[in-house]
Amino acid sequence: MKYLFVLVFATFAYGDDCIKVKAAFDIGSGTTKMKVGRVNTCLQKIEKILLEANEPVAYKEKLQNHPKNLLGEDIQQDGLNALLKLKKMAQAYSPVSYQAVATSAFRTADNGEVVAKKLAIDSGIDIDVISQKEEALLGFAAAVSKSNKEVSQVLVWDIGGGSMQMTSYNKLGKFDIYEGKIASASFKKLIIKNVQKHDPKEVKTPNPISKLDYQTSKNAAKAYAQSTVPKTIKEKIQSGAQVLGIGGVHYYSVRGQTKVESKYDHSTLESTISSKLAKHDADIGGDYASTDVSNLILVKSYMEALNIKEVEAFRINLADGVLLSGKSLIK
C-alpha cells in the first residue's frame, strides 16, 4: 500500500457520512501505540480521541541482540499479544477500520516485512511497513494540525525507539527532512557499548549513569547531530521556527521527567539530568527506566548542537497521522 500526503487548507460543507470512528496503531520500535478517534474524513480532521492506550514491546532491543538480525519468535508473540490486547479495547467503540504502521525495527530487520504480514493476518489489523520519509511526513501532518503557527514556521521533531525525524515545510512547497539513525534504543546501546564499555547483550541498562558518562555521551551525540543534520533544517531552527516534539520520547519520557506542562528548555533538562545521574533503574521506576535518563541526554545534546532554545511537546504519535490519512498517506 502506498500513501499520498496532502495538506488541506480549504473548508467545505460535509454530511454525517464524512464522520467515521477509526482505530489506528503506531507499531514503534519500543512501544505499540493505539488511538481510536472520531474523524471527519472529508476535512481530514480528528474531531475527538475516544481512546488512547500503549503497550511496551521491545522490538528494537531484541533485534539489536539477535545474531542474525531477525525479529525472533518471542518478540513476535509479544507484539501479537500487544496488538490483540489493544484491539480488544478498541472494539468497544466499533471502529470501521483497524490500520497500523510499523517503523524502524521492521524496516531494518531482515524478516521485518514477513513478520508484519504475519502479525496482520493473526491480528486482523491492516499493517504497513513505512519508510522513514513516510514516518516523518505522517508525524508532521498530525503535529501541524495541532499548532497555531503557519505551517512554514514549524519544525516537527519526532524521536522513537529506532529512528529520529526532523521535518519542515518550506515556502517553495517542499519538505525538508532529517532522517536520523540515532534514537532511544540505539542511544542507550551507544552508552552501554561505547561509553561504559559493556556488552549490550549482557547489560540491558546504562543506569547508573555517571557525570563522566553523561559528558562523554553528550559530546558524541552533539558531534553526530552537527555532522548529519542538513543545513536546511539548521536554518529553519535559526529562523525562529516553533519546534514541536512528538512521539513517546518527547511527550512521555522527557516531559514526564521534567514535570513541565508542555515546554522545556536547556536549564530544565540540565537540572533534571543532574537529579537522575547515579540512579539505578529501580530508583527511576517505570517500564522505560532503562532509557529515561539517556533520552534526556539525547534531547539535550541535539538542542545544544542545533541551538534549539525550547521544545514544545505534543501528545502526538503516528497513530494520529494514520487516523487523519487512512489509506492515503505519503508519496
Average pLDDT reading: 93
| CATH homologous superfamily classification of the largest domain | Exopolyphosphatase. Domain 2
Task: Quote the CATH topology of the largest domain.
Answer: Nucleotidyltransferase, domain 5
Strand count, sense and barrel status of the largest sheet are:
6 strands, mixed
Q: What would the principal axes of the Cα set say about the shape?
A: globular
Number of domains: 2
Q: Strand arrangement, largest sheet? A: 8-7-6-9-11-10
Beta-sheet strand percentage? 15-25%
Distance between the termini: 11 Å
Helix content: 40-55%
Number of DSSP E strands: 11
* Radius of gyration of CA atoms, rounded to a whole number: 19 Å
Low-confidence stretches: 8-13, 327-331
Describe, in plain words, how this protein is organized in 3D.
With 331 residues, the chain is of the alpha/beta class. It has 2 domains: 16-134 and 317-325, ATPase, nucleotide binding domain (Nucleotidyltransferase, domain 5, 2-Layer Sandwich); 148-313, Nucleotidyltransferase, domain 5, CATH 3.30.420. Helices cover 44% and strands 21% of the residues. A 6-stranded mixed β-sheet has the order 8-7-6-9-11-10, with helices on both faces. Helix 10 packs antiparallel against helix 12 (289-306). The chain starts with 18 loop residues before the first strand and ends in a 6-residue tail after the last helix.
